[in-house]
Amino acid sequence: MRFALLLALLFTAPSVWAQRTDAEEKTEAAVPEVRKLEGAIPEGAVVVVPLKGEVSKAQFFFLRRILKAGEAANASAYILDMDTPGGELGAAVDILQALMKVKAPTYTYVDPNAGSAGALIALGTKHIWMAPVSAIGAAAPVMGMGQEVPETLNAKIVSYYSGYFRSAADNNGHNPEVAEAFINKEKQAKVGGKEINEKGELLTLSAQEAAEKIGGKPLLAQGIAGSVAELVRDAGLRGPVVEAEPSGFERMALVITMLAPLFLLGGIIGTYIEFKSPGFGVAGALAAVSFLLFFAGHYVAGLTGMEVIAFFVLGLILVLIEIIFIPGIIVLALAGTLLMFGALLWAMVDYYPSAPEWPSPELFLLPLANLGVAIGLSGVVIFFLAQFFPKIPVLRRLVLTTSGPAGESLTMDEPGAAKMSVRAGDRGKALSMLRPVGRAAFGGEVFDARSEGDFIAPGAEVVALRVEGSEVVVERA
Description:
Blueprint: H1 2-29, E1 34-36, E2 46-52, H2 57-72, E3 77-84, H3 89-99, E4 106-115, H4 117-122, E5 127-130, E6 135-137, H5 151-171, H6 176-183, E7 189-191, E8 194-197, E9 204-206, H7 207-211, E10 213-214, E11 217-218, E12 223-224, H8 228-235, E13 241-243, H9 250-258, H10 260-275, H11 282-300, H12 306-324, H13 330-346, H14 365-388, H15 393-399, E14 427-430, E15 437-442, E16 445-451, E17 461-468, E18 471-476
Helix pairs in contact: 2-3, 2-9, 5-6, 9-11, 10-11, 10-14, 12-13
């Protein structure tokens, strides 16, 4: 008998040992390396997005930018590496909406906290994993400084958002009862006949409680992992694992996108003044900076890409070709203007690569409103500038730069002042671009000139219409 047992051990032990060795080697080999993202997201990568500190709009901008870049690179999965006590409920809703727009599976790794808004964001992902010592829950709304919300208002907020997050949880395969117990302390939650939360208390789950199986299904978390790398291994995810990092401009993007109409206003008005003045001056610099900040902010916020900026630049080039080289060809200026305004509008559209090629009309509502406000205010300002521009000394000093030819500029006909030698009907030549202000020569003398009508290119023959103060008002001969 002993001999038979010994033989059995001899024959079975090697196979058991081999199985244990293979399992151990597989466990060690399958833990992937998590690299910091440098440059573009690799094709088919597992993208780790840190969500640390208070939930805010800046985090939403950061996440949205990474999600869009990941969709363009066909990312295989997204993992939110979460450690947050909570934050803005509105930002949490925005983040949840962004997560629901991507094709690849989404994961939340709670390490160690997913409190309040963080718990609600986790419900927006398809899978939830916990660190060995971690907690999730307690999502009751509070005021900005942490004080309790007034009872009536609190009832409205809880009623709406408990329904909202129940829907999100159900959509992602989580138990809606758990979602409501996170935010509604009046909810007595039971799962599979087991009470998981008493009425009067907000639900908070430890890692072990969240991963507990009730009726053969985890209460909330699919598993417990010691790190993001272990989660990738245990969940069977494939592809290089890269961790994105927020840039220092994420908060700047928040301000710029909120003030988008003002930047558009500054760009449009600056462009108008620049085209109406000779040389390149302060107005042109104002327009350039306004448009640069507008596109930079929307790029950082994940709303636009370099291709949109390229279309804007192409439109600007077409307009400049029309004005400088072949004035009068309306087609080029019209096409350029349409490209520029189209780029400005598209830069504000929240479009995801995985969405249909043409976004839904709802996505254009806010961009159209911003662009409409900017164009409307610009029209009002440009109207007044057109009426009073030539008569305001400050503006004249602003746009009449030293880029124009030097020469004598006579004053108005007044007792004791030099007499203007130009009379109506005299012919001269434009020395600089009249847009409408510039310089023109009459009888060998150089004067400040202002066009009445179209822009007049340098070298064109002009006719004096009248003298206004120190300016000669002219038209193309």
